[in-house]
Structures are given as structure tokens and as C-alpha cells.
Amino acid sequence: MIKRKKAYEKEAEFQYEILSNELQKIYGKKDKAFEAVKKINLRIEPGIHGFLGPNGAGKTTTMNMLVGALAITSGEAKIRNEKAGTVEARRLIGFLPQDPVFYDNMTGEEYLIYMGKLGGLNKMEARKRAQELCVYFDIFNDRTRPIGEYSGGMKQKIGIAAALIHKPKLLILDEPTANLDPIGRANIIDKIKEISKTVSVFVSSHILSEIEQMCERVTMINKGAIVISDTLKNIKQQYIGNTYELDTNKNKEMLKSLKQKDYVQNTWIKEEDGTIQIIPQDADKLKQEMPKVILENNAILYSFHIPEISLQDIFMEVYVEKGDKK
Ligand SMILES: Nc1ncnc2c1ncn2[C@@H]1O[C@H](COP(=O)(O)OP(=O)(O)OP(=O)(O)O)[C@@H](O)[C@H]1O
Ligand SMILES: [Mg+2]
């Protein structure tokens, strides 16, 4: 009874899937020392969370420390309240490394059973679960072929299946769609979205549109430091543009009229697509008066809105802001 209560209290305490405190990695020593992860404080809540950053930002280094595959230089990390690197923490995690190493002679099924046993399942359980996962990932007919014969997409599926075999609470996926064609990517993204309904996912990528499709929250890092960590919605709101876009059948005439309005600060025609761009002096008035301007010009309205900002735009802006135009 007491034990049970304790377990419950622990569960109630649990707020973050991943929580790190000044987590740091220094590779090498003395004059060769290189700080790849700069004392970061991660807060990863349940759900699906994207980990973004350009090549060399420190994503793989961070993930490897979280799963206990790489020694932490200083600071600490917790996985659902368990210290990263301990057996307890490892059991909670299913991990897909950036470059998984497979035994090419093993069949897919043998590999999954092997990983299942490593994850604490007995042989019977491991076989049952391996077969379920092969069905789930649509590789059941290939499960008895050696992995050496698998395509990149099939290997990626086996890698994710192996990460799921012991029913972890948290999946950590390091670039799960790397090297896949668009169909393979879409396939893996759909699966990850589906899996994330029952298991939390922390997924890295530098393909922003993918993260945008999958994640509610994102953390962006650059040169070992966190640049932004928030919900996609908040990030987009923070960076939302102030430039309205207008398209009609008479853009030239409309532009002339708008130039004379006191509620318009600046307006011009965008070369790429011929739409009118408007920076308002008074946004409410611009919206109120727009129907009148259209009537005055006897124009047909195609669209009038603030274009949605993409994660790509934000990413560029964040790095340009920080003086890093790479
Ligand atoms: N074993 C190592 N020894 C020394 N430096 C390393 C080592 N592994 C990584 N680094 C360096 O640490 C930095 C972060 O690398 P890391 O692999 O974590 O980046 P990443 O964000 O995963 O990049 P990518 O998107 O290319 O996978 C890079 O500058 C890299 O050169
Ligand atoms: Mg990496």
C-alpha cells in the first residue's frame, strides 16, 4: 500500500518528459576542448516535440546524453523524474539513433526479437511484439529477409519498431526521415503522428516543414544553445508579420488609391506575384475601409490577409537576428 502511494506521488509529480538543468557537453580536452552543448535547460512536455537546428547545432549530442549513450560533462537531465543514463531512465525511452547500426545478416524479425530481449522481454513476448510491429509498419512479408537487403525506408521502419519494442513511454528519434524519398517521409511522419497519440515523442530534424506537420511544440538550438522553445502557435504569433497582402483584378489602380489613404503607412506591388503589400498605419481602419476602396475602383477581390509565416521564415529570422546568416 505504502509502495503504491509512493509510485502515485511520483507520477503526480511528473510534469516533463525531459527536463535538463545546465546540461553541458565538452568534447576533447585542453586546447582541443569544444563545447558542443552549452548548459541548456530543456523542458519537454508530454506530446510531440520537435528539436530543430542546423547541421552541427548539437541535436545528436544532446539526444545521446539524454539516452545515456554519451557521458554528460556537467549539469543533469531527467527523463520523467529519473536521472538520465540510469537503468530506470533508459527503460522509459525508445531511441532511434541518427545512424543506427544494424547487423546485416540478421533478419528484421530476429533483430526486433534481439532488441526486445535487451529491453527486458522474454523470447515469447519479444516474438509476439516483433510480429505486431512488423504488421504495423507494413514489413511483415519482409521480416524474414536479412536487413542487409532492406531499402533505406525499410531500415528506418525497423529502427523505429526496435525503439518501440519494449513499449517505452518516450520515443527519442534522431532524424527519422533522413535519406528517405518524399513517399517514405510522408509514411514515417504519419506513423510518428499516430504513435504520438499514446507515446510522447522528441524528434529532431532540420526539415522545418516536417516538424511543422508533426509537432505542437518546438525547441530550436544553434551552436549548442537554445534559441527558442515554445508552442508553434506562440512562436508564429510572436513572429507574425504586419504586412497585409491584397490581390484583386485591378492591382495597379488599387495601389494608387491606397497610396493616398492616411491609414496606410506604405504600400507596393510584390514583383514575384504582382500582389499588393500593405503596411498599415491603422490596421483596424484599413480593414474597415477596404470594401470602400474596392467599390471605388470597381474591382473584384481575390484575397486580403496577412500571409501565414512559415517555420522556415522564423528560423531564418532567428538566426539572422543572432547575427548568424549561415
Ligand atoms: N565525437 C566528437 N568529437 C568532437 N566533436 C564532436 C563529436 N561529435 C560531434 N562533435 C561536434 O559537436 C557539434 C555538434 O554535433 P552534433 O552531431 O550534435 O550536431 P547535430 O545538430 O546533430 O548536427 P546534424 O544536423 O548534422 O546531425 C559539431 O560541431 C560536431 O562537429
Ligand atoms: Mg545529428
Commentary on this structure:
Strand 1 and strand 2 form a beta hairpin. The protein has helices at 2-13, 59-67, 87-92, 108-118, 123-136, 152-164, 182-195, 208-214, 232-238, 251-259, 283-296, 311-321, and strands at residues 18-27, 34-40, 43-44, 48-52, 74-79, 82-83, 93-96, 170-174, 200-205, 217-222, 225-231, 244-248, 264-269, 276-280, 301-305. The chain has twelve helices and 15 strands. It starts with a helix and ends in a 5-residue tail after the last helix. The protein folds into two domains: 10-235, Rossmann fold; 241-305, Alpha-Beta Plaits, CATH 3.30.70. The protein has 326 residues and is α/β, with parallel strands linked by helices. The protein is 39% helix and 25% strand. The chain is elongated. Bound molecules: adenosine-5'-triphosphate and magnesium ion. Residues 27-28, 34, 36, 53, 55-61, 98, 206 line the site of adenosine-5'-triphosphate.
